[in-house]
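Table 4 source record.
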Amino acid sequence: MAPGEVALDTEGDSLHHYPERLSLIQLAVASGDVWLVDPIALSDLGPLASVFTAPSIVTVLHAGDNDLVQLKRRGFGFAALFDTSIAARFLGDKALGLDVLLGTYLGVELPPSRQRDDWSRRPLSQAQRRYAESDVLHLFALKRRLTEELERIGRLAWVEEECAALAAQPVVERVVDPNAFARLKGARDLPARNLAILRELHELREHLARTADRPPFKILAEETLVRLAQTPPDDLAALASIPGCTPKVIARWGEAVLAAVDRARAIPDAALPTLERSPRLRIPGIAARRIEALRQWRAEAAPRFGLEPGLLLPNRLITTIALAAPRDTGALASLDGVRRWRAETFGSEIIAALGAP
């Protein structure tokens, strides 16, 4: 095992607290040494962050998207990554859970899952420590087995390119979206007054969640917010008829919910919220035909290469390619997100599917 490899995992407390906190960082090296780092107790993670920016370090993780977001928001950067979940996808594996992959490739069985635990509580139990350590201990051996298989079928470079893109991906900072209520299922079907009620209820839920240090879904479910907006209650008895408004919910937050409904009812008509519909991307007829041709090619090619259609050519790339209409593989490779491996391996087929000469 290369001396410059470090296995990485993190645990959060999103099921128990709000906003979510990074609650544990697990690190391992190939010798079998494991470290559990407490980011709640340590205000400065700079010395640790510097480890991952060293050019000689490859960070090994599994399905690391969320781990990377959490750490990049704390100032971490990564020189090189190897994500075992991405690797398994390029081998055509359908079940991508770490427990499944370790069982399949190494015959290793993980301890029982502790994903629903509150990882911000201290001290950690022995069962939690075993679980946390096991999530990083076996990543080196799994990487080695997956790399062997990828080299055998000639796809290691594909995975390395995808992992490099993941390492370089900029993090989106967490911001409070004042229009988040408009994206709830059913929001766009509400009249303006009821939409105002939904907005007030959504803001109330955010406030209660932060005050109570509880995830918003444990205050009121999104479906309950929409039901309340559809049939606004006048009193606690009416509130009790709304699915999701249990006696415990009413006892804790019933009066606040009714007050939010009253505030929305008092909003002048001229100040009621309106939802602007996002303009749909206008796709010319010829581009629409290219999209259909690319989808047909993908449907045929995906089983031929043993890859998920969305991995072979995601829908967003289908639209990008169809609109750009590249005439050769060089132009195809220059499109954002296409990647070198797609252009080199499937480029000529994609150009042929577009009908280019």
